[in-house]
């Protein structure tokens, strides 16, 4: 790439580090500030932070690639994601914001699970925290692989060098500023992603004389919408729409709801977040559709469909703009990595270290331990990412399903079912995670394939987890009066804040 592109990237890196220093001076004096930004995050930052940490490089590389290969089949995944995100804002965000504060100011998702049942040092907390650390370490390594491959393909740098650059910048601002730094950088990165996903498909489309010319060229390789709809099966539709179920259980997304400054601010965040998500998903799908049309019309060689955004960035724009667009991909990757690192470190510190050890530590010491946790998780993820042959898409989809099935039904039951018991919560979480793993890895079909080749694993995992939660609660012991009183208090506080 041209020298001007490197200048654009350098400016981006410096800006991210500057935000980390600013956040370090603003919010890291206590553990609540480090983990949740003191519960004073604005709705604008909440919305774009949730969106940017959610979508990752999948938005700029994976979804355009899926549209490039399969055409309008990718649209159903987008519809499922939009529906899931909207329902998450409506049914989870307000109650979770209030309930986590009422439940003895819970700072992490596992801590909320435990304090929801008036048992802050229960096995439920340790098991859920362990699931988070393990899944997010793998999730983070997948993001690092994407960053390494981006530097390798776009900048002709060594893969390992790309890993260290990506991780170095992310760890620096996460280590310094904690949740506020992650949220502010996610806000900036979300703005960059928004501009990039509007700019690239529009400029690429302008190379055609008309919309009919573009669609005719695209339909040489992919089926049109009518043909795609006729070929759609019920199982295929459920698998695509099922991605939306994952939102209820993604710790790096729902923790944003815990940190927003008030319940009333959630409606503003929802409007901003859903508008951002709608435009960026349309831009992502548009990049893939225009990409296949451009390749057919102008004889463009595309060896890897997931790099169509990178290819457009290099051939259609001035080097300064190309650098900005490359920064957009890095922004998508880094926003998710930083969120995963912080949530992992928070669980490691608050839900495992503090529960297992008997030592009393100050908030300042806990923040320091949290920073060590960020560095430790990052180091393990880096080791896993050193092998450039690691797959990215399958790992991300599996982790999304794992979190969605293990935590999604549990979050909803915790917020809406007063008589839910701790035993039911533990059983539901484990059954969801085990079902997903079985669906992915058990070669029980005739040709040795796993059940995930038939239907996306989040569907059975979510269903079995929900059934287990309901069944164990129905035939188990009743919750204590204190647990029911806290549930009622959270409901009353929510009503007060909404009025």
TrEMBL record:
GO biological process: proline transport
Name of the protein described by the UniProt record: Sodium/proline symporter
Catalytic activity annotation: L-proline(in) + Na(+)(in) = L-proline(out) + Na(+)(out)
Subcellular localization(s) per the UniProt record: Cell inner membrane; Cell membrane
Membrane topology: Multi-pass membrane protein
Keyword Transmembrane helix: yes
Main localization (coarse): membrane
GO molecular function annotation: L-proline transmembrane transporter activity; proline:sodium symporter activity; sodium ion binding
Similarity comment: family membership: Belongs to the sodium:solute symporter (SSF) (TC 2.A.21) family.
PROSITE patterns according to UniProt: NA_SOLUT_SYMP_1, NA_SOLUT_SYMP_3
Function noted in UniProt: Catalyzes the sodium-dependent uptake of extracellular L-proline.
UniProt keywords, alphabetically: Amino-acid transport, Cell inner membrane, Cell membrane, Ion transport, Membrane, Sodium, Sodium transport, Symport, Transmembrane, Transmembrane helix, Transport
Protein source organism: Alteromonas hispanica
InterPro entries named in the record: Na/Glc_symporter_sf, Na/Pro_symporter, Na/solute_symporter, Na/solute_symporter_CS, Sodium:Solute_Symporter
Originating gene: putP
GO cellular component, one term: plasma membrane
Chain ranges passing through the membrane: 6-24, 74-92, 126-147, 159-180, 187-208, 228-248, 269-295, 307-333, 369-386, 392-412, 424-442, 454-472
UniProt-listed NCBIfam families: Na_Pro_sym, sss
